[in-house]
Amino acid sequence: MAEPKDSTRTYLDRLFEPSTFQDLDQVLEWRRRWRAGEPEPADRPAQSLSNAAANSAEDPAEAQAHWQAQLEQLDESFFEASQPELIEALQSIPIDRYPILRAPVQRRLKLAHHLDALRAAAEDPELDESLWQEFEALLLEPAQTSAESKRKWLRRMRHAAARRQGVAFAKRLRQQHPEVFAFEAEWLQDTLRAKRIASDSKKPLGFLGCLGAYFLFRGILALVRYLTES
């Protein structure tokens, strides 16, 4: 197999060098230069791939922290980013070397492939803006904390006003934005069920219930009459 060209090796060296992988714009600029065959800047000497790997091997915790920081930086403009560049940046994170990043990266890749659907939902005037912002944040929230955030959301559904807003929000997503609804289908179904649970608790007693209440009332009256006459 032929050895890669110097420009290809330089691009790959930098792409997988955690100490220099600080922001997406810088990496994309290296990629553009590599594709265009432009020379590397004189003030930026290339580091060999073996040296980058050696540095990572010396301190894997530091290398992992760099990739984690990169992931957090992508989150800051996740829903506004260019879809191809976002997917490329996520795919460049070496999740095989850092398994702890596998789940959050794969989650974001799934979201990135449906970025158009997410943006369409964000622009839907029928969706409550504050609830959408909360929903967006939950999509990127770590699994360790998102479960509690969802429980807090559902606890709010005990209040009538919050329940009306939450149910309307979930219904709109299910009907008009099914791709987005699918990301959190179980949790949103719980939001819809909250209305039925509350409604069931307020149903009228019915014939048997009224009959029981009548006899209970008669019994209480009889007991009071007995106590007052004795």
Give structural notes.
The protein is mainly α. It has two domains: 6-113, no CATH class; 126-200, no CATH class. It contains 13 helices and no strands. It has helices spanning 6-15, 24-36, 49-58, 60-76, 83-91, 102-112, 115-122, 129-140, 143-156, 160-176, 178-183, 185-200, 206-229. The N and C termini lie far apart (110 Å). The relative contact order is 0.06. Residues 1-12, 18-22, 42-57 and 198-203 have low confidence and may be disordered.
The ordered H/E elements are: HHHHHHHHHHHHH
- Biggest β-sheet: count, sense, barrel? none
Total strand segments: 0
Q: What does the oligomeric state look like here?
A: single chain
The average pLDDT is: 77
How many distinct helices? 13
Rg from alpha-carbon coordinates: 29 Å
Poorly predicted segments? 1-12, 18-22, 42-57, 198-203
From the helix content, strand content and strand pairing, which structural class follows?
mainly alpha
Strand content: under 5%
Classify the helix fraction into a percent range.
Answer: over 70%
User: How many structural domains are formed by the residues?
Assistant: 2
Which outline best applies?
elongated
User: Span from first to last CA?
Assistant: 110 Å
Which short descriptors sum up this protein?
disordered N terminus, 13 helices
Provide a short characterization of the protein structure.
This protein has 230 residues and is mainly alpha-helical. It folds into 2 domains: 6-113, no CATH class; 126-200, no CATH class.
Strand and helix layout:
Layout: H1 6-15, H2 24-36, H3 49-58, H4 60-76, H5 83-91, H6 102-112, H7 115-122, H8 129-140, H9 143-156, H10 160-176, H11 178-183, H12 185-200, H13 206-229
Helix pairs in contact: 1-2, 3-4, 5-6, 10-12
